[in-house]
From TrEMBL, chain A:
Transmembrane segments: none annotated. InterPro entries: LysW (IPR005906). This is Lysine biosynthesis protein LysW. It comes from Halonotius roseus. PANTHER family: LYSINE BIOSYNTHESIS PROTEIN-RELATED, LYSINE BIOSYNTHESIS PROTEIN-RELATED-RELATED. Signal peptide: none annotated. It comes from the Archaea. Pfam families: Zn_ribbon_LysW.
Length: 56, 293
């Protein structure tokens, strides 16, 4: 398991091994939703806000 | 086979699909639709040699246009843009179901507050007001009184996007605290579950409890007809039991075209992503017979 910094609060975010680009993670410290921009090396950014037409 | 995944966010559902495809050594092209342009003559996305594209866009608007463009480029895509078009819009969904003789909740559409109020009064209270585009139970309103109806209609008129001025009014179905979600591929059920809640909205996304459900022949027949009514594909068909639990009588209230299945996969014995990938392999072979397994 690797780690990356939360772009929102700077705390370390634990990353699981099968990290997928486009996946959303929660920062365990500040609760921010984070999008995985790159898996190797890991790069995180704050995830887009919920849009009205999202769903299934 | 080489399979394209149209997406803008990878949910657990997409991870389940990706893992299953990788386990079977299929080549995957992940296409983040946010990063590309789609022109009349082609796209910046790499769609070369795709045997099949799978639309998993979280955003309905992106789903509708991206699938339309891929179809334009002669890339086989599931679900088809025609299916997406019907499923994305509750009005078209209701019309398709009714037109196919599938029982669906009685619905009226009105374009002004006054006409909507007349429709609401004709149903009586409670009845339901839904956005024509939306998911996960968002912006659904159970109208318990005339004063509540007046307030919500005014809010929609004043604050709403133009789509919220298409007032979709529906009878309230007194379901037995649960509804039924069926994931189906071209009308063939993969698995089904109930979603139970004390709240009138029982969506899994709203925290409804899920449990495996065994479909009877009546429900299976409705799922097949409902799927055909919207053009088939990988669908989430939602049913409500009319007249109480296990009454054997159903109404189909919704069909979803980018169906989420992680909750279903977690409560049934069927391997849902594996069954979906079986179906994707079949679709790819139908579309491009040279597609390798």
């Amino acid at each position: 398991m690797s780690e990356a910094d939360c772009p929102e609060c700077g705390a370390g975010v634990d990353l699981h091994d099968d990290l997928e680009v486009g996946e959303i993670l929660d920062c365990g410290t500040c609760g921010a939703e984070l999008e995985v921009l790159a898996a190797d090396p890991p790069e995180l950014d704050t995830a887009p806000e919920l849009e009205e037409d999202w769903g299934e | 086979m080489k399979i394209g995944i149209l997406y803008s966010r990878i949910r657990q559902d997409e991870k389940l699909l990706l893992n299953e495809l990788r386990d079977r050594d299929h080549e995957i092209e992940k296409i983040d639709v946010r990063k590309h342009q789609f022109g009349l003559d082609g796209t910046t996305a790499n769609i070369d040699d795709l045997d099949l594209a799978v639309d998993r866009c979280l955003s309905t608007s992106r789903s509708l246009y991206a699938t339309r463009f891929l179809d334009h480029y002669d890339v086989p895509v599931v679900n088809s843009p025609e299916t997406a078009d019907v499923c994305a819009d509750k009005v078209k969904n209701s019309l398709a179901l009714d037109g196919a003789g599938v029982p669906t909740p009685d619905t009226k559409v009105a374009f002004t507050v006054d006409a909507a109020m007349e429709a609401i009064e004709s149903f009586g209270y409670p009845c339901v007001l839904k956005p024509v585009v939306g998911s996960w139970g968002r912006l659904m309103a159970k109208l318990d009184s005339k004063s509540a109806a007046e307030a919500i209609l005014e809010h929609k008129k004043v604050l709403g996007h133009y789509e919220h001025k298409v007032f979709y009014v529906q009878e309230f179905v007194d379901k037995p605290g649960r509804d039924i979600r069926v994931v189906a591929v071209d009308g063939e059920p993969v698995a089904a579950m109930t979603r139970t809640s004390d709240h009138w909205l029982t969506n899994a996304a709203k925290g409804g409890d899920t449990d495996a459900f065994e479909l009877d022949d009546t429900a299976r027949d409705l799922v097949e007809k409902a799927s055909d009514a919207v053009g088939g594909g990988l669908l989430g068909v939602d049913l409500m039991e009319v007249g109480g639990e296990e009454s054997g009588e159903y109404t189909v209230h919704e069909i979803n075209h980018t169906v989420e299945f992680k909750a279903l996969n977690g409560c049934v014995d069927v391997d849902v992503p594996a069954t979906v990938v079986d179906w994707l392999e079949t679709k790819a072979n139908e579309a491009t017979p040279e597609a390798t397994q």
